Amino acid sequence: MEAFQKNEGTLGKKGVERLRDSSAFLVGLGGLGGFVANGLVRLGVKRLYLVDCDVYEESNLNRQLFSSQMTIGKKKTSIVKKELSLVNPGAEIVTFDMRIEELTADDFPKDAAIIIDAVDNIATKLHLEAFAKKVGRCLLHGAIGGWYGQIGIISPGKGLLREIYGEKAAGIEKEMENPTFTPAVVGNLMVAEYAKFITKNDNVLLDRILYVDLEEQSYHILFGKD
Amino acid sequence: MITVKLYAYLREKHGKQVDIPFEEGMKVKDIVERLGLPKEKLSLIVAGDKDGMASRMMDVPLRDDMLVHIFPPVAGG
What we know:
The complex is a heterodimer of chains A (226) and B (77). Chain A is α/β, with parallel strands linked by helices and 226 residues long. Helices cover 35% and strands 19% of the residues of chain A.
């Protein structure tokens, strides 16, 4: 059986083809980013751009997919690229071992269909939202803290994150931190939204926010009634 | 009665859920003030069939038996 063919029953032949032709620009390879990168490669994406400047630390082991005793101290971009290539050697993985703030609009790869926000702080999330507007791409946003998470796809120029975060410096993650399961769940919800975005599924969370509470298993979609 | 569901650190004082007697003319901000919730710790609010940024929801009128969810910001990765 061909690799990734099992996606076809759900996403259709045309959908799988669209995913195979797609490229994504993923910023952040921490808890969310590891699971997003893993999911995108298993969806069969053609090209994946990875942006992160960190190395794995011992404190990442509770939740970050590609962290292990073997990878502590090593660059996340290098390790994730290596691991993803073992899953799909046909996927082209391009790494930027730097902070997103160091990239200009001219550095942005024109074939990337969407920018993915898997970064861990409000200032960088707002920077990414402005960057996405500048390069005219939607932003697939994800955020986590404790039992909670939120995801959504934001149209360029909509400024939803600017409104949601306002002048806040941080969210509940400062106090609750991030347990093992929340990045895995929310990261894979982001992968599902990527699949819907690329395959033009009408149910995509476009300019809407899904707020997830894993403690009570409650899921609310906001901004759906405009 | 208005049922208010709180999440994460907004539960510190009042627990997961609080019932507040409904009064005519009540708005979302009346609940926030009564519970003493710091506005900088509020992100999104759902009040019945209305939802949005906490800052834009303050003047939404409440009806008796309404369920209100108040969510704090999440921004980790």
